[in-house]
Amino acid sequence: AKVVVMTCPPLSEQPQHPAFQRTTRYNAALQQRLCSSHPDVALADVHGAFVSFLQEHAARSKQLHIPLYRFSVLSCVLWQPTAVFQHYLLRRSWDEISRRRGLLLLTDNVHINDTAAQLVAQTVQPFLEIR
Asked: What's the whole-model pTM score?
């Protein structure tokens, strides 16, 4: 069996946000560690896929035009339950919840939506193919 490690998606969709930068540094360290200590382990770069998507769709992102303080632990604590409420009681899709919040891939700056889930699947799929 082949071992595949996935990088973590970014926290926040604002590249200049400290949480986003922290996940970028974490994933870089993870990749470096894998290359040096476990060269036989494959890496599915989910973080890189998210970053590429955000760069390609930057014109649609409202997150690049709002102050950095908008993403905080408190906003995550408040946004996550309201996302669940909107999805299950108001029947909004995860993508619709994200769109209403000015997000492209995340529902609450932490949890992924359907578009992001497709990106994860596309990133991991090549490692699942039978050879």
From this structure: 0.88
